[in-house]
Design goal:
Oligomer: single chain
Helix content: 10-25%
Structural class: alpha+beta
Strand content: over 45%
Number of strands: 6
Number of helices: 2
């Protein structure tokens, strides 16, 4: 597997979206990749959360990185997080 690098934007968004770099890397390494907009790729992974986010309780957190596979590295462009 190629090394995974997060863009500046993706790193900034981790805090605001409630996820970690470790979860993003795990999602890319363990989930099925699918085509995304603009020739990029995406994948999704559910994590047990069982905690509050924005004053509401959720059991599951889903991490969805958007990334590009280059010759020598995978570059994460942004990360979305969903709570269920």
């Amino acid at each position: 597997m190629k090394p995974i690098r997060l863009s500046g934007h993706a790193k900034e968004q981790l805090y605001f979206r409630g996820t970690t770099e470790k979860e993003v890397i795990e999602t890319i390494n363990l989930s099925k990749w699918q085509p995304a907009e603009l020739g990029r790729l995406e994948c999704r992974k559910d994590f047990i959360f069982e905690n509050e986010w924005n004053k509401k309780y959720y059991k599951i957190k889903q991490v969805r990185p958007i990334f590009a596979e280059e010759d020598t590295v995978i570059v994460v462009v942004t990360v979305y997080t969903y709570y269920f």
